[in-house]
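Chain A, query sequence.
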Amino acid sequence: MPIINKDLDPAFQIAGANPGLEVWCIENQELVLMSESDHRKFYTGSAYIVLNAVFPKNGPPHYDIHYWLGNDTKKVDSSLASDKALELDAALGSCSVQYREIQGQESQKFLSYFKPCLIPIEGVYTSKQGNLNGEYQVSLYSCKGDYVVHVREVPFQRSSLNHEDVFILDTALKIFLFSGCNSTIQERAKGLEVVQYITENKHGGKCEVATIEDGKFVGDSDVGEFWSLFGGYAPIPREPPASQESVAPSAKPFWINLQGKICPIGSNAFSKEMLESDKCYMLDCDNEIFVWMGRQTLLTERRTSIKAAEDFVRNEGRSSKTHLTFLSEGLESTVFRSHFTNWPKTVEPKLYEEGREKVAAIFKHQGYDVKELPDEKDDEPSIDYGGTIKIWRVDGDELSLLPVTEHTRLYSGDCYIVQYTFPGNGRDETLFYAWIGSRCIMEDKTAAISHINTMVDSSRTNPVMAQIHEGKEPAQFFSILKRLIVFKGGNSSGYKKFLEEKGIVDETPNENLVALFRVQGTSPDNMQAIQVDQVSSSLNSSYCYILQSEAATYTWIGGLSSSRDHNLLDRMVELFNPTQLPISVREGNEPDIFWDVLGGKAEYPREKEIQGFVDDPHLFALKITRGDFKMKEVYNYTQDDLITEDVLLLDCQREIYIWVGLHSVVKSKQEALNLGLKFLEMDVLVEGLSLEVPIYVVMEGYEPPFFTRFFSWDHSKANILGNSFERKLAILKGNSRDSTPNGHKSSSNIPSGRRRSSSPLPRSSSPLPRSAGSDYRQSGNRLFSSPTPVSKKPFEGSPANNRAEQTTTPLSDSPSTELSSSNETASFTEKDRNIDRESLSIHPYERLRVVSPNPVTGIDLTKREAYLSPEEFHEKFGMPKPAFYKLPRWKQNKLKISLDLF
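Chain A, predicted structure.
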C-alpha cells in the first residue's frame, strides 16, 4: 500500500509500499523513478536517491536512504538530492537512516545493493537516451574489496596498473583479469565476479576471458596480447609500502543551532543524556561524521543541520573519503553508540511515536494493528526431529551415559553432553550440545567443554558443536528433547562436594519433593517444566504452573495464559504422576492452602509478557590477526559471501553461528567457540546480548539445514574445491568439480543462475622482478587456547568402552558417528585406486600447496597430491600412493588438509 501525502513529491508516492530497492534520478531539477532494469545506470554527472526498504519477519520496517553524487554532478543537483532525501525521510515518519554517497567512496552497505558491482557511466542521465553505435570503447577498471567491490574506471595506460589491486581490461573480443601480486585471493575472486557481470551485460555472455598473473612469466600468448594493448611490456614501478600506523579517531561533539552554526560542546565524557530531543548535533569522527536529529526537531531544522554538516566537510577541506550519516533519535547505529558511555542496550518494544500515522498503512496492509505488537510466530522446523539421541552427564573426568528413561530429566547443578543424529542432505548429520546448568560448578563446565571437543574431534562426520546455557536454550534444543523437566540440584560429585563445603542446602529432588514448576512450550512435542523458587513471587499471569506438596499436586492457570498453555499443562502433569489427580486452581480463586504451600501470598507479574522484536540476522567477517579479530559487517549477504579463507559470524540475536572456512587460520572448533565468546563480550556491538546466548560452530562443507535456512542455499556450489579464486574461476569456466569437501555428490554441477564462458580460461602470467610478491595469508597459527585438558575415561555405553586400551578416539566406533569404511572405499572409482599409475606430470610439493605463492596451473585441483613424485608423496604422507587411496575418503581429506593440499 503506497504512502500518500499531498505535500510529497509525486515521485515519492509509492515509497515504502513494498520491501526492496527504489531508485530515483534527478533530471532537469525533477525526480525520475528508475525502472528496475535501470537501477545500475549511475551517470557521473547526475545525482540519485536510493531507498532500501526492509520488512523484517517481525518488528517495524527498516529504511535506509542514500543520496549518491557523481563526480561531475552540478551543485544545484547535489543540494536538491539532499533536500529530497530529507523529504522522503519525513514521508516515512522520520524512521530512516540517511547517507551521503560520493562516487568512488561509496559505503559498503550502498554497494551491497548492486552486487556484484556498480560501474558508473560517463555523462549525464537523460530519459531520452538513444542507442549508442560505433566502435567498442576499450575500458580499464580497478577493483578493490573482499565482500563488495569498488569498481573505478581508470585511464587506459600502463601507469594505471599497480601490484596491489585487481584490474579488468575490457575489449571488444576479450576480457583480461590482471591480478596484482599483492592483491588478496578474495579480491581476485571478486574481480572474477565483475568479469562475469561485464561478460553477461556488455557482451551478451559471449566473450573470451583470460586471467593474467602479475609477476610470473610463462610465455603465454594471452600475456603478449595483454601487454601489446599497452604498447608492449615494461616493469610496473613499485610503490613504497604505506604506513600501517593507525591513530584512533577522536570524536568531537557539536551542537547545531537554528541558524546552522556549529557550536563546540565542551565535554569529553559523552553520554546519551547530553542529546536533547529538540536539537540537532554533529559528531565529528574524522573520516566519518554523524548528524543526530532529535525526534522533536522540525523539518526545517533538520535541513539546516544537514546543510551545515555538508558545508563543514567542504570548508574544512576534508578528504573525499569522509562519510556523512544522518540519524534520527531512536535509530542510532552501533558505531555511533560506541562513542557514548552507558548507552542503554535495550529498547522498549513499541512502534515509533512520531510519524505513526504515516507508517500505519504499511502495518495494516500486513494485517497488524499499529497499537499492538504482532505475536511472534513459531519457526518452521529446520531439521528432522525424528533422529536418535544420546545424553551423557558430566562428572569431572567421568561421563555417564543416561538411560532413555532419564532423557526428560536434567538438573541445574549438572552439565550434559547431548548428541543428536538426524537425516540430512544425502547423509546423516550429527549435532553436539554442551548444556551448562545454571548452578553448575566451574570445574564441571570446563570439563564439559573439554569432553565435547574430544567427542567432536573423534567423530568421522565433522558434526556441528554448540554450547548452550540453561534458560537460554534455542527452540531447536527443546524440539529435539520433546519433553523436558529441569530440576534444581544436581548429581555431580563435584557439585555435592561444593554444597557440603559451603554449607548450602541440597535442593536435589527426593521422594518428599515440594516444588513449583513453570510450564512452557509450543506443542505436545515441545514442552518443558522448569523448577522455580517455591514462593508466590515466582508466579506470572502469562503462564501455568505445577505445585507439588506432600499432600497434593496443584495446577495453577494464569489469567493471561492461552488454551494451548492449558493443554500443555494437562500433558505435563501426567509426566510427574500419571496416577494422581491434580487439584486445578485458576488465578484469583486460589484456596488458602495453596498460598500456605508457597509461604504466603505475595505480588507477582500480572501483565502479558510480550516477546520483543528480533531483528533479522547480521553477518560479520572476522579478520583475525595476532590472537584478536576485527569485525566487518557483510550487508545483503548471500551464500557466495561465505569465503573459504575467512571465519564468519552470523548473529541471530537469540543464537550465533561461527562458520569456519576450510582455508581459514582457525583450525579447531574450540578456537571458533572462543571467537564467539569474544564477540559476546563486545557489549556495544551486539547490543547487550547475554554471554549465555547459544553458540554454534559450523565447518565449511558440513553446513546443517538450520544454518543454511538463512541463505538461498545451493548445495552444488560445495562441489567446487580450492581457494576462492579457483572456485570462482571454475564457475566462470563452467567446469565445476564432482567431489565435495565431505565426499558426497550433488545432482547439479553448475550453480543455478550462472552462465558458462564461451571458451576455456587459460591462466596466464606476466613478468615482475623477483623481489615482488607476498603470501596472501598467514597459515595455521593457533590463536586461542583451549580449556585445561581433562583426563578422559571411555564413555559409558559406547563400544569403545570395551576397547579402551586399544584406541585413542573413544567415539570412533560409536554407531551414531561412524561412517562405514568399507562403504566409502567401495564408492571409490578405479581411477582413485590406480591414480599413481596414471601418466601425470610431476610437480614439487611447495608449488602444489593451496597457499603456494607460485602455484601450479592446469591441474585437477581436487587431486593436488597426485602430482607429487612417489618419493615426495611417501615423505609427506608417510605411505605410498596405493595405500593412501585405500583409506576412507574422510581420512584422505583430513591428511590433505593437514598438508595444505585440500
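Residues 346-378, 735-837 have pLDDT under 50 and may be disordered. The two ends are 52 Å apart (CA to CA).
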